[in-house]
Amino acid sequence: MKKFQFREALEAGRKYLAKGAIPADSLRDVIYRAWERSHIQGANPQALQAEKLSPIDTQRLLEQQNPLICAARPYMKMLSQAAKSDRHAVMLSEQNAIVLDVVGDEQSVKGPERVPDPGSLLSEAVGGTNGLGTPLAENSYVEIVGPEHFIAGFHPFTCQGIPLRNEKQQVIGALSISVRQPEVGQRLKDILICASHGVEAEMLFRRLEADVRCVVTTDPENAQPLDNLYQDIVQAHSAARLRLEMTSRLVTGNNIDYAKQLLKQAEELIQLFRHRATLWQNLASFAETEQVESICLQDAVQELVDLLATETKIREIEIVVQTEEEVWGEVNYQSFFKNLFHYFLRAFELVGSGGSVLVKVYQILALPLGEISIIPIPTTNQVQSQPHPFNLRIPITRKIYEY
Asked: How are beta strands 318-323 and 356-363 bridged, if at all?
């Protein structure tokens, strides 16, 4: 893989201006592809500034994209804080690379050599190779250093950008940071990537808030347990933001090793939040899917046990899982997970405070079936009024059989 060479990239630009041909041997592969796209789409390499929407169209776009702007702003401020006194600009765009928001130092945002402001068009067709348009075109993280920019007006900057996606993995925009010194960009790369995941999690978090309100009004029976699960998810989200905030303060100086630890923790917490948020949505959703998938029953049980940690603590109930070898089944995951959740709640009601629930996962001998048995074990006082343990079995085949 070809590495960036300043002189070679600069010479590639001169050759292109002189002959209209892109010297592939002088550019990194990702930059060559970006230059080729920019050339084919008619970008002007001698432009000094980006084209813009009209003020009215810009205002309309900002109003339309307000949820994304609000979700991204805290993470943009963290990135800006991590850059500290270095010249920098953190930029947000929607899916077509139109700038929505900019955060940075005074010179970069408002000075004579400022970066493009909201409403600026930074698709490669207009802005050439850049930190928003190119990551969107490549559908991945991209770094562009100085003369690797197709347009001369962007040569003073080193830009890094990454696409943003919603919970369905659809691209909804891009986040980038532009600096004057490449070494500063390298210091901020991991924070940028983590911040982009934070923005995606923030969008999901806001969606969950709306889902919670819907559950409270339409499913009051399960509202409290689902709200307890939601509060756990909120804590993971808050903890991730706090660690990223601390990282942005410590990323320079003698605290770099500690900052790296915090950044790793933030990324892990964001991934935990996203995973548990998806599970929560499966539980709270009223829309049924028909998708069938193969899952490990032990893993599914453990995921739900982890998700119910707060609920069991509140009720003072212990869950004990017994299993031997892995058992796999073909299930409609959403229906399966909902049923398993409701069976756990029914078992909790039977055992009461101080009781326990035994969960067994095993393969039924001589049959292509797995089985999950949820056995309530009440306290001594409750056993007198409920002598027969509640034993619920869930056979797993192509469909879930209800009892």
From this structure: parallel
- Neighbour tally for 215: CB within 10 Å: 20
Confidence of residue 62 (pLDDT cuts 50, 70, 90): very high
C-alpha of 152 from chain center: 34
Residue in 325, 348, 346, 324 with CA at minimum distance from that of residue 394 = 346
Domain ranges of the chain: 47-286, 292-395
Quote the CATH superfamily of domain 292-395: Histidine kinase-like ATPase, C-terminal domain (3.30.565.10)
Q: Is the pTM of this model over 0.90?
A: no
- Does the domain spanning 47-286 belong to CATH 3.30.365.10? no
Q: Where are the alpha helices (DSSP H) in 251-296?
A: 256-284
Instruction: Give the integer Cα–Cα distance in Å for 135 and 97.
Output: 9
Q: pLDDT (tens digit, 9 = 90+) per residue, 335-369?
A: 888 888 888 888 888 888 888 898 988 877 766 67
Cβ within 8 Å of residue 295, ≥6 positions away:
328, 329, 331, 333, 336
